[in-house]
């Protein structure tokens, strides 16, 4: 489902009456198109709040909240991995994130096995208070996280028994693997050794698949399986918690691209990018881009006509 960028461009040119008002170049159109797409997209979240206060309609195709969810669903991403960068619970969210919904952690417990737990969002100040008190301190069953920046988070507790599908997050070099044990070489591994826990998945050269830590005691790590006949120093890679996020991504940038032939710009579909908005937004896109073009070419009449048509569509949708 997408709106053709060429269809919108040709309609904008036709309605602008380019011979009299001035030609809207592809570069100008792309600027206006991306501005219009983001304005419409951002308005969804304000409309969502408004529609939640309205009476519900039993027919999904006539219920405003359902129609809005259909438009937003194009941009929803579910169970996307969060990159854990170290053993302290620091993580990086996906780069195309626009609005974060929630974080989940697949944690292994003795009673229920692997299951997803919702990670509660708190402020940095709240995290410090919660972490200090014994009764409120976060646990595997009740984890918390805070946003450190637009794309960086911190999760607590920062180390726990991960799920089988967890991704590796840190390595320890300089282990001698022999008969299922890994002896810590203090000079290279001691600073990370204290964060290794029983139950963590382990990978590395000479380590069999599905190997986990079974014992951590006095500088020795015992693995669930023996090494593949190697006693040479190796590198162990340990797994973190399986953190996933649900979020709404940003629309991709619109681009009307062309190939110039005999001085004429001809549409090139192979190198162009269509609008990602729902098909129902096509009229709104045309009129909003027209209004922006009216400002650009200093034509108040074009701006007023386009703005009036857009307002008519908006009033019809929200009656």
Can you walk through the features of this model?
- This protein is of the alpha+beta class and 319 residues long.
- The protein has 8 helices and 16 strands.
- It has an 8-stranded mixed beta sheet with strand order 1-14-4-5-6-7-3-2. A 6-stranded antiparallel barrel has the order 8-9-12-11-10-13.
- A hairpin with a 2-residue loop joins strand 15 and strand 16.
- The longest helix is centred in the N-terminal third of the chain and has 26 residues.
- It starts with a helix and ends with a helix.
- Please state the overall shape, judged from the principal axes of the Cα atoms: elongated
Helix content: 25-40%
Which segments are poorly predicted (pLDDT under 50) over 5 or more consecutive residues? none
Helix segment tally: 8
Sheet with the most strands: spatial strand order? 1-14-4-5-6-7-3-2
| Strand count | 16
Determine Rg (CA atoms, Å).
Answer: 28 Å
SSE order, one letter for each helix or strand: HHHHEEEEEHEEEEHEEEEEEEHH
Terminal CA distance reads 26 Å
For the sheet with most strands, the description reads: 8 strands, mixed
Alpha-beta classification = alpha+beta
Mean pLDDT: 80
Instruction: Report the β-strand fraction as a percent range.
Output: 25-35%
Quick summary:
The chain is α+β, with helices and mostly antiparallel strands. The chain has helices at about 5-15, 20, 25-50, 65-70, 125-130, 185-195, 280-295, 300-319, and strands at about 75-80, 85, 90, 95-110, 115-120, 145, 150-155, 170-180, 180-185, 200-205, 210-215, 220-225, 235-240, 240-250, 260, 265.
